[in-house]
Amino acid sequence: MTVDERTLRESLATYANGVVMTSSDVDRMQTDLQKRLGPKRNGTRTRLLLAAAAVLLLIAAVAGGTLWLRRTEPIIPATPQGVGPLPAITFDEDATGSNLVSIRPDGTMSRLVDQQNIFDLATAGWTHHWRIDGATLVRDSVGPQGEVCRGTVPWAVESDGVIRYDTTVLEGPGCPSASEPPTLSTRLSPASEGGRQLRSDAGSQARPVIDAVQLNGVWLLQGSGLLLASDEIRGGVGAKYRLDDDGDIDIAPDAKGRLTVSPEGRITLTSDGCADTTLSNVVSTGTDTRSTMTMTVTSDPCVWFSGSGVLTWIKVL
């Protein structure tokens, strides 16, 4: 290798900033380019130009391969006007069904499609980073296997706690489809006017609750921002529960503990902070979203229910 070739190689290595390249790589690329240019192009100057071209082509390939990773770097936003207080739990409904979304002020969000996601966020799968760009919400997502997808969607506030999202356009190698349908998002916790007016569905005939499995899901106390999440203990007795009214039931619930149901239908909530809470006369109209459950407060030492005698819950997940 001549002094000029060595100088060029070192300069290009600095420019490439981390691109790994051996002498055999340079020779192979030079040979390929030489064949394309023809046999008459020889000499030291031509070798140098060919080596430079080969390295620059490699740099371009690496830059293209990392484009999506650079696009999905999270941006921590200030809370935009109209989004409402954060953190928040919203009820999002579109033509395909509904789920809950946990939105946090650090620019992250989680889609909650099962009550287990409330107790273990790792089960939610994808990690989402969000920001507001004018009238558009931008959501950069990374899947469990590193797949990436960007969603952009126009949004508008309809009323207190209610946001309407237009069709979401999806871009990226990890996107499951090209778009997502329009969505109506209602903030449940902290309480909003939209959440207080969430419509319930009486469903089927009311049946007594005599097993913890009948409480599986997430329930909104009608007219409030209080959420109850319950997940039966597989192979055990009762269920785990969480209570929260300020939008972070998934990461910092106001109360949590063990929930049990007696054969007579009496619910007991244990908590480290106070004596047991007991509820009786529990009946449910079904297991579908928007079905209802009513119960009578018989003991409320933690003052979670503000002395209310009869509670009506709406299933939201």
Structure explained in plain terms:
With 317 residues, this protein is α+β, with helices and mostly antiparallel strands. The chain has three domains: 3-65, no CATH class; 88-188; 207-315, Lipocalin. It has helices at residues 3-16, 23-37, 44-65, 67-71, 115-119, 193-196, and strands at 88-94, 97-103, 108-112, 127-133, 136-142, 148-159, 162-165, 168-171, 179-180, 183-189, 207-208, 217-221, 227-232, 239-244, 255-261, 267-269, 277-284, 292-299, 310-315. Helix 1 (3-16) runs parallel beside helix 3 (44-65) and helix 2 (23-37) packs across helix 3.
Secondary-structure blueprint:
Elements: H1 3-16, H2 23-37, H3 44-65, H4 67-71, E1 88-94, E2 97-103, E3 108-112, H5 115-119, E4 127-133, E5 136-142, E6 148-159, E7 162-165, E8 168-171, E9 179-180, E10 183-189, H6 193-196, E11 207-208, E12 217-221, E13 227-232, E14 239-244, E15 255-261, E16 267-269, E17 277-284, E18 292-299, E19 310-315
Antiparallel strand pairs: 1-2, 1-10, 2-3, 3-4, 4-5, 5-6, 6-7, 6-8, 7-10, 8-9, 11-17, 12-13, 12-19, 13-14, 14-15, 15-16, 16-17, 17-18, 18-19
Helix pairs in contact: 1-3, 2-3
Overall number of structural domains? 3
Count of helical regions: 6
| N-end to C-end Cα span | 69 Å
Per CATH, the class of the largest domain reads Mainly Beta
- Mean pLDDT rating: 82
Low-pLDDT windows of residues: 3-9, 11-22, 40-77
